[in-house]
Specification:
Elements (H helix, E strand, L loop, with lengths): L1 E3 L2 E3 L2 E5 L2 E5 L2 E4 L4 E4 L7 H10 L9 E3 L5 H4 L2 H7 L5 E5 H7 L6 H8 L6 H16 L6 E3 L4 E2 L5 E5 L8 E5 L4 E3 L4 E4 L2 E4 L8 H10 L7 E4 L3 E3 L3 H10 L7
Parallel strand pairs: 6-7, 7-8, 8-9, 13-16
Antiparallel strand pairs: 1-2, 2-5, 3-4, 5-6, 10-11, 11-12, 12-13, 14-15, 16-17
Length: about 250
């Protein structure tokens, strides 16, 4: 789906815990740079390639990936993309996510499952083993770390917003020229309504609430949610409602 000139929200079919769903990486490009924001689940390279080509961009021109965070549905096809395009795809992520993506630390969600392994049902134990195996065998280098408030000089300027909580190094990206927020997993859409990510998916919900309040300083008209797609209502007002209606310390 076209959001603005040079911005396209991809729509990739996925199966999440047995439930058919859609995830929404974002493609941003100009004359020199083609950037993919997040890379789907493992095995989704063909779908990602097709979606990029559908946006009118040659997949072979992809030369940068920015990861909002470490979760498997966001880094899943990164190693496949890098193998497919060996001549230079630069990978960017926040410094707090780098060690997880590179396999130097056990990813947060894997560690959470591992901490409760003995009490997990057999189905969840099998999922844990699959996810852990993926991370052990699909390590990818982060070429450059990015930090809060940094403006990346691509595609009209991309502002990095450090929004920890869902994971330790989660980021959002803000495109000022079209007032669009790429929200990663701090927000999602359910039934057409913009909501915060479920507490059960957060590394630290209190941090996530603080991060949500940071978004209030930006003039946002459109939100791209990885889970849920496009929100084009009164985004600033809705974000303020969410930030002020969810108190610190709420569990």
């Amino acid at each position: 789906m076209k959001i603005a000139n040079g911005i396209y929200m991809l729509e990739i079919s996925a199966n999440i815990m047995g439930t058919p769903s859609v995830i929404n990486p974002t493609l941003i490009w100009d004359n020199d740079t083609v950037i993919l924001i997040d890379t789907g689940f493992p095995g989704q390279l063909p779908q990602i390639r097709e979606a990029i080509e559908k946006a009118g961009v040659s997949f072979d021109k992809l030369n940068m990936v920015i990861l909002t965070h470490q979760d498997i549905d966001h880094v899943g096809s990164l190693s496949s993309i890098l193998k497919e395009l060996p001549n230079g795809v630069e990978v960017l992520a926040h410094k707090e996510e780098k060690a997880y993506i590179q396999g130097e630390k056990l990813p947060v969600k894997v560690a959470q499952l591992e901490a409760h392994l003995n009490s997990l049902p057999n189905e969840m134990k099998a999922i844990y083993e699959k996810i852990k195996d993926f991370y052990e065998n699909n390590k990818s280098n982060v070429d450059k770390t990015i930090s809060d408030g940094e403006e990346l000089p691509y595609c009209g300027g991309i502002t990095v917003i450090y929004t920890p909580g869902h994971t330790p190094g989660h980021i959002c990206l803000y495109l000022k020229y079209c007032k669009t927020l790429i929200a990663g997993d701090i927000l999602q859409i359910d039934g057409g309504i913009l909501i915060h990510a479920p507490q059960s998916t957060n590394f630290d919900t209190d941090l996530s609430v603080i991060s949500l309040k940071k978004l209030m300083q930006y003039d946002i008209e459109t939100v791209i949610c990885y889970h849920g797609g496009l929100y084009g209502g009164n985004a600033n007002k809705r974000i303020e409602e969410l930030a002020n209606g969810f108190s610190i310390g709420h569990k």
